[in-house]
Structures are given as structure tokens and as C-alpha cells.
Amino acid sequence: MSTFRDWAQLLRVSALFTVPGDALAGAAAAGGRADLRTLRAIGCSLCLYEAGMALNDWADRGEDARDRPNRPLPSGRIRPGAALGAAAGLTGVGLAMAARAGRPAAAVAGALAATVWAYDLKLKHTHAGAVAMGAARGLDLLLGAVVTGHTPLRPAVALSSAALAAHTYAVTRVSRHETTGGSSLAPFAALATSAVISTGLVLQGLRGRGRDVGAGAAGSVLAYWPDASAVGGPARGSRLSRGLRLSRSLTAPALAATYGTAAGRPYLHAVLNPSPPLTQRAVGGGIRSLIPLQAALAAHAGAPALGGALMALAPIARRVSWKVSPT
């Protein structure tokens, strides 16, 4: 009989911690508040992500029998029909949750679900596969943006979505060589991509241009900071206020630099030695580094407190990945 650990391995539960940040970063970029609709968007994202994991292994069960016979399906620990049923059920639940969040969310979730199924069933082993994966992450962030009720198609949303999509595209290209290794080009391209994204966010933050929704989100629960002028009188409040503003201005570039380091180190190792183990580590590191990227994007959108909160997921994801691989 299948065990909880079997299903945890099939569904890659350690990678789940990279999902909530998509919707939250999208809400921050749109200048909205996190509310019940945002939670429904996160629930939809989690369901569709897990549906994709189950469907991926169902579609690849023949290939895995040759290259990864210890996975739950080729080893017989989970029946193929059960995996396919789980994918269909999770997709249905995810779409229902999106529908409860409103028509815009339902439309984006429908496009996201179609992208996930198309990738797993048809596009994965084609040149369009990595593009589809990147599009899925971009749509996931857009899902969090549209549920806010604010105008989602603003520069902050477009840039955040593009950054997530580019990162995911690069990781997917590296994952093509997980079992065989031998390619330095894919991890080098991923290293360059993460360096460009990280450097761009750092420079943008240092120039003070990374908070194009900051004024509109100042009262948001996503971007709260204490009122320094009410602490210890005007003089002390003024000094404390300047300190808080400085802290806010440094949070975004610091998180961007953290992302660049987290993503770049495993990619560099795979460039220098493109063996299957190091390539797999590069893929896992690329997946987990989505968390600091989401945190940096939220901070640049005017929600530094949210960015710091998202970073709390990083050590949890790392610890769980020691027991259940995210790839």
C-alpha cells in the first residue's frame, strides 16, 4: 500500500514552499492587500502545482522506469491510475478555489491549468517545454495580482512576472540534464540569468526606483511599518523614522543579493563539473532560490515586511528537501 512518504515524494512536497510567494509577490506588485481572496489564490496555486507534479510522473512513468526506477510509480508504490486521478482532482479543486476568488482569477487559473497539463502531456520534451514552465510561474504571480481588485497590468506586475518566468525557464533548461549530466551550457545560461536578475534588482533598489507601488501600498498589511514619530517625541521619532526608511531602502537590494547567491552557487558548481549529482543539486537550488527571488520582488514592490516574512520559508524548504527531493 502507498504510504504518506510515497505521496510526499510523488508530489515533491519540499517544493511547495516555493509556491505561496508567487501570489503574495503578485499582490504586492499590484498594490493590494492580502485578504481571503489572496488565500484562495494561494490555495489554487498549491493545488495546480501538486497536480502538475502528479501528472508529470504519470506522463513520464515509462522514462522513469529506465532512468529513475526508485520513483513511486515505476517502483509500484503508487498506481498510475491513482496519480492521474490525483492530478485531475487537484486541478478541479484548484479551479474551484480560483472561481471563488472572482472571474479574473478564474480566467488566469484556467490558463495556468491548461499550461500545466500541456507541459506535462505534450510540451515537456520539446523546445517549448521550458517556455511553458516559465509561463506557468508568470501566470501564478499574475493570479495573485488579479485577485487584489486593483489594476494588475502595471509595470511592477509585468516585471515581477517576467523575472519569475525567466528564472523558471533557466532552471527547466538545466533540469533536462539531471539524469545524464554533461552540459555546462545550460547551468552557465542559468547562472547568467540569475546574475542579470539579481544585479538589476540590486541596482534598482539602490537607486530608489524599486518601489513603484510603495505609496499606494503604504497602508497595506503587506507593507506596514511602525509610525516612528509617535515613539519618544518628534526628535527621536525623526531619527527613528530615518533609520526605518534606510532599513526599508536596503531590504530590497539585500534580498536581491541573497537570491543571486542562493541561485548562483549551485549553478557555478554545475558549470565547473556538469555531473548528474551536481546538475541535480543545481536544479534543486534553482527551485529553492525562488523564495528569495519572490521576497526581493515583494520588497521592491513596496512590501519589505512581506519579503522578510517570505524568507522564513527558505530554511524550512531546505530542511524538508533533505528528506524529500524537490526534483
UniProtKB/TrEMBL annotation:
InterPro entries: Prenyltransferase_related, UbiA_prenyltransferase, UbiA_sf. Transmembrane segments: none annotated. It is found in: Membrane. One of its GO terms (cellular component) is membrane. It comes from the Bacteria. Keywords: Membrane, Transferase, Transmembrane, Transmembrane helix. It is a multi-pass membrane protein. GO terms for molecular function: transferase activity, transferring alkyl or aryl (other than methyl) groups. It holds the Pfam family UbiA. PANTHER family: CHLOROPHYLL SYNTHASE, CHLOROPHYLL SYNTHASE, CHLOROPLASTIC. This is Prenyltransferase. It comes from Streptomyces fodineus. The lineage of its organism: Bacteria, Bacillati, Actinomycetota, Actinomycetes, Kitasatosporales.
